[in-house]
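Standup notes
- DV: blocked on the single-chain target, sequence here:
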Amino acid sequence: MNAVKMNVPFFKASIGSEEEKAVIDVMRSGWLTTGSQALAFEKEFSEKVHSPFALCVNSNTSGMILAMEALGVNRENAVITTPYTFVSTAASARHLGADVFFADIEKDSYSIDPNSIEKILKSPDGKKVKAIVPVHIAGNVCNMNAIMNLAEKYNVKVIEDCAHSFPSKTQSGYAGTIGDAGIFSFYATKTMTTAEGGMVTVKDSAVAKRITQMRLHGMDRTTWDRYTSPKASWEYDIIAPGYKANLPDILAALGRVQLKRAEEFDRKRKIHAAYYNSNLKKLDFIKLPPNSEGNAWHLYLMRLDLSKLKCSRDDFARELQQMGVGISMHFIPLFNFSYWKNLYPGFTPENFPNAQQHYLETITLPLWPDMTEEMCAYVVDCIKTIGEKYHG
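- DV (later): unblocked, structure below
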């Protein structure tokens, strides 16, 4: 192992002088909120992923709520999603009063299992389902062919949670453009960032119009239009009790520069992921992450084969941290949290064995564009050292 201890952060955003200039230019322009930069960002993102409509929002969570609402999710129906996700995916449906039905993940991946989805759709509860919400965990795209076939067969919508999956390009198109809607995240740790923010992609013009209105208080005119149009700025109508979910121009300007660099970031992450794969595959106590077509490699999910180790996942993770390696866990399944356990008494680890097993075995390693090969090598060396210590 390397003689000198290193500190490898879990993540560090790649922000340069061009991003700084873009933000300062907006600050000096006199227009700080949603305006021309946001409109340009939407157009450029739409062109990038080949989506008819792209609508920027202040978070993936806001985008999820808006997309669900526009596609008819409400207290009379339900959505199907995975328990192996961040809480916002399922919570968005609850904000609209809808029920959430959970389908287990696949045995050998972190993706929602189409067979588990169909079991719900075929059950008496299936009649209540309005939408399937697959989550492309770590940038690894779900089995969208199977999911879209189910959506057509049972006449339900598909809302892709693409918080991890930009730019994930498949033969069916970019993740986020395959279903009825796709919701992206530009949070600070994502594959590109606006610090906070997100984007919703949709195909239907009526859905796009509804989201546009609902993201800003249900107004029938945008702020930019009201203050730049010859029509009086104070004239507008409220068509529904909407939300406050618009993305300011300062953040949109940052996003425009990051979007230009997205392929650069993607290439670098894949180099680091390939380094991990080539070195970790030699270790019999490691299970490599799944690697589907279009994998964006937002996260590197390292699975431990605990049958070969005399320690727990938590023990292994703790020692990595003590060696200076920043790690995380993706994800704590939702059935571990009080709210979901209290809401759905049958929502237990025993009913989702694949999600539970993956959770107990997984550690998320550092993976960000500006990592050096020395950092990657140090992470691998630490894993080898701990593995040798606990190998059974």
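- Follow-up: The mean pLDDT is 96.
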